[in-house]
């Protein structure tokens, strides 16, 4: 099978090399249709792109928090040492799910046990347990015959196990439930190594983490922007996946955005958490903060007709507007209202690493996703500044990437 594939690939390459490029005929109806179809598609020019590692695929697992934050740390290591590394998401997941289960049991089940998490979880893991390279543990999915993560069976086994322990009627727990849970974690994720050899050297997870020369305890800070807590103070953002109650500095929205821009300008990247359930977040690799009040007329429908369209029909019309789609101007008040009414959620983690402009001069953040090389940009999303301002829950960044006046004001 491999031989046939290689021969076919060689033949395809030969055809590609020998074929003469064909110019499209502007009078051809097919060409006109394609140009009309793509008329609103943005054409990007990179303003600043900081180094990132390759796009990964979390597949059927709720581990965006794990993939996006380790991607962020890989860029931090690349900036600090010049070394390209591939940190192991399974190591972090193994340690984190055990810690989360312990909390659920400690609270007798009065908290959530789920696949999700926050950017703080990988940092906590590295601080307390270390980290290993991807090659030190089994490849994702390989232990149960898959080529990528598939947590469906895994969590259908683990969730009721943790729930049964947390809600049992025993007057005293034995420690054996942890042994059993560790067996489940190791069976699906792989056993975390105590030592491993990487590039000819033997490490423990902690010595490997220390080898990069990063101050894991002091270099990283988190930011958010809401009005139900005082600005310029730190609080634990009240979302279920912030189960460790990690603190984020609360700053005005304008300063939140200024931190992101400054970080990119200074060569740093950002571990971002926010809401991608909005209609403006497309599967093609774009994200706009749609102004829905202006949409019907621009999409060729009057309001009466617009309201009768299905969600899919509306989405297709909105997406067809591309870079001409009107956007809201996010405000602090809007952010707070959307957070309080559950509209603004923390459903995805991604990795912001650059800024680009479209043909109209509008600026977008370049954002690495963890869904494999999907969409029009091979796993990269272009998200407008309005979208990020409106939909950011919180983000982690190197404290040296924060503007000096903000650092001084916060004392960091």
Brief sketch in words of this structure:
The protein has 412 residues and is α+β, with helices and mostly antiparallel strands. It has 15 helices and twelve strands. The longest helix is centred in the first third of the chain and has 18 residues, at 64-81.
**How much helix is in the residues?**
25-40%
The average pLDDT is 89
Specify the biggest β-sheet. 10 strands, mixed
Unreliable sequence segments: 1-26, 30-35
Please give the radius of gyration in angstroms. 24 Å
- Share of residues in strands: 5-15%
Distance between the termini: 58 Å
Total DSSP helices: 15
Number of strands: 12
- N-to-C SSE string, H for helix and E for strand: HHEHHHHHEEHEEEHEEHHHHEEEHEH
- Global morphology: globular
Structural class: alpha+beta
3D structure, described in words:
This protein is of the alpha+beta class. 40% of the residues lie in helices and 14% in strands. The chain contains 15 helices and twelve strands. Helix 4 (89-106) runs parallel beside helix 6 (151-166) and helix 4 (89-106) runs antiparallel to helix 7. The radius of gyration is 24 Å and the shape is globular.
Key structural traits:
ten-stranded mixed beta sheet, 14% strand, alpha+beta, 40% helix, 412 residues, globular, 12 strands, two-stranded antiparallel sheet, disordered N terminus
How is this fold's topology laid out?
Layout: H1 2-18, H2 29-37, E1 45-49, H3 64-81, H4 89-106, H5 120-129, H6 151-166, H7 176-189, E2 196-198, E3 201-203, H8 205-210, E4 220-224, E5 233-236, E6 247-250, H9 253-265, E7 270-274, E8 286-287, H10 295-298, H11 303-308, H12 311-320, H13 332-340, E9 348-357, E10 363-368, E11 380-384, H14 385-391, E12 392-398, H15 404-410
Parallel strand pairs: 4-6, 8-11
Antiparallel strand pairs: 1-9, 2-3, 4-12, 5-6, 7-9, 7-12, 9-10, 10-11
């Amino acid at each position: 099978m491999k031989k046939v594939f290689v021969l076919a690939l060689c033949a395809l390459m030969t055809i590609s090399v020998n074929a003469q490029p064909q110019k499209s005929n502007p009078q051809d109806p097919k060409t006109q249709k394609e140009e009309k179809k793509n008329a609103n598609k943005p054409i990007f020019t990179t303003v600043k792109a900081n180094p990132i590692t390759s796009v990964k695929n979390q597949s059927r697992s709720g581990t965006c928090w794990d993939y996006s934050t380790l991607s962020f740390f890989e860029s931090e290591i690349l900036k600090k040492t010049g070394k390209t590394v591939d940190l192991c998401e399974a190591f972090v997941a193994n340690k984190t799910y055990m810690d989360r289960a312990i909390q659920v049991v400690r609270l007798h089940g009065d908290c959530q046990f789920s696949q999700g998490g926050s950017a703080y979880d990988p940092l906590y893991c590295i601080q307390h347990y270390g980290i290993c390279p991807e090659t030190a543990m089994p490849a994702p999915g390989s232990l149960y015959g898959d080529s990528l993560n598939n947590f469906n069976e895994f969590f259908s086994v683990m969730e009721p196990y943790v729930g049964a322990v947390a809600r049992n009627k025993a007057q005293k727990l034995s420690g054996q439930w942890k042994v059993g849970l560790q067996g489940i974690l190791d069976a699906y994720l792989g056993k975390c190594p105590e030592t491993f050899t990487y590039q000819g050297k033997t490490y423990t997870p902690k010595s490997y983490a220390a080898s990069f020369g990063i101050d894991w305890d002091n270099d990283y800070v988190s930011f958010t922007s809401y009005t139900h807590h005082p600005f310029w103070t730190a609080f634990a953002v009240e979302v279920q996946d912030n189960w460790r109650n990690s603190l984020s500095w609360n700053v005005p929205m304008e300063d939140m955005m200024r931190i992101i821009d400054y970080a990119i300008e200074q060569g740093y990247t950002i571990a971002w958490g926010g809401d991608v359930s909005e209609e403006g977040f497309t599967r093609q690799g774009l994200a706009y903060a749609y102004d829905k009040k202006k949409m019907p007329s621009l999409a060729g429908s009057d309001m009466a007709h617009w309201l009768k369209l299905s969600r899919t029909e509306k989405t297709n019309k909105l997406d067809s507007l591309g870079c001409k789609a009107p956007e809201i101007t996010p405000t602090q008040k809007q952010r707070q209202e959307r957070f309080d009414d559950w509209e603004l959620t923390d459903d995805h983690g991604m990795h912001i690493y650059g800024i680009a402009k479209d043909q109209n001069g509008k600026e977008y953040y370049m954002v690495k996703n963890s869904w494999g090389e999907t969409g029009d940009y091979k796993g990269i999303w272009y998200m407008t500044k309005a979208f990020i301002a409106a939909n950011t829950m919180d983000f982690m960044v190197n404290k040296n990437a924060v503007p000096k006046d903000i650092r001084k004001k916060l004392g960091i």
